[in-house]
Specification:
3-stranded mixed β-sheet, alpha+beta, adenyl-nucleotide exchange factor activity, 5 helices
């Protein structure tokens, strides 16, 4: 109760709080000074905590210039890549079959020699043997390039590898099977290079 009375006396007294006690009074000059000081501090904080407009503009221009440079460099690199790729593609189209053609030239040489021998010799058996050797050499050259023959005769017809050009009555045992090959099919690696044209039994 004693503390309460002292507090009431301090509050209800005529003297009040003076500016000298550390508490501003709006009736006198100290209140205006404090308001001015607060406004100055706020301005100082704004300048110290944030970049001014001229500096921000300069910084923004530097960032934009940096990204423009990166964009131009990237565009130039892409153009060079596109031109190089196009040039390599054209070279591949023009010279892609070079290896195959080089492998075929020896076979053509053998054919030319066989033709010359046919004009000078009547030995049919020798000529037959020579042609057989040429055929084997040609088949081996294709095999080295990944070209293999599709074996379909006497097997079930498979549209993935064969093209039926005719059907022939061959009995129940041959029904649905390849009974003759009109044109040999070939594979290039795992892909069909040419479908085999066959006759299917029915």
């Amino acid at each position: 109760m004693k503390k309460k009375e002292v507090y009431n006396e301090a509050v209800s007294g005529d003297e009040g709080f003076s500016a000298g006690d550390g508490y501003p009074s709006c009736d006198g000059e100290p209140c205006a000074n404090v308001a001015d000081d607060a406004e100055d501090a706020t301005a100082t904080m704004a300048v110290g905590g944030e970049t001014s407009e001229p500096e921000a503009a300069v910084e923004l221009e530097a960032v934009v210039a940096e990204w423009q440079d990166k964009y131009l460099r990237l565009q130039a690199e892409f153009d060079n890549y596109r031109k190089r790729t196009l040039r390599e593609k054209m070279d591949l189209v023009q010279t892609g079959g070079r290896d195959v053609l080089l492998a075929m030239l020896p076979v053509r040489d053998d054919v030319q020699r066989a033709l010359a021998a046919m004009e000078k010799s009547d030995d049919v058996e020798a000529l037959r043997s020579g042609v057989l050797l040429i055929s084997q050499k040609f088949t081996e050259a294709l095999r080295q390039k990944g070209v293999t023959e599709i074996e379909v005769k006497d097997k079930d017809f498979d549209a993935e590898y064969c093209e039926a050009v005719a059907r022939f009555a061959a009995g129940e045992e041959k029904k649905g099977k390849v009974i003759d090959v009109v044109q040999t099919g070939y594979m290039l690696g795992e892909r069909v290079l040419r479908f085999a044209k066959v006759v299917v039994g029915e």
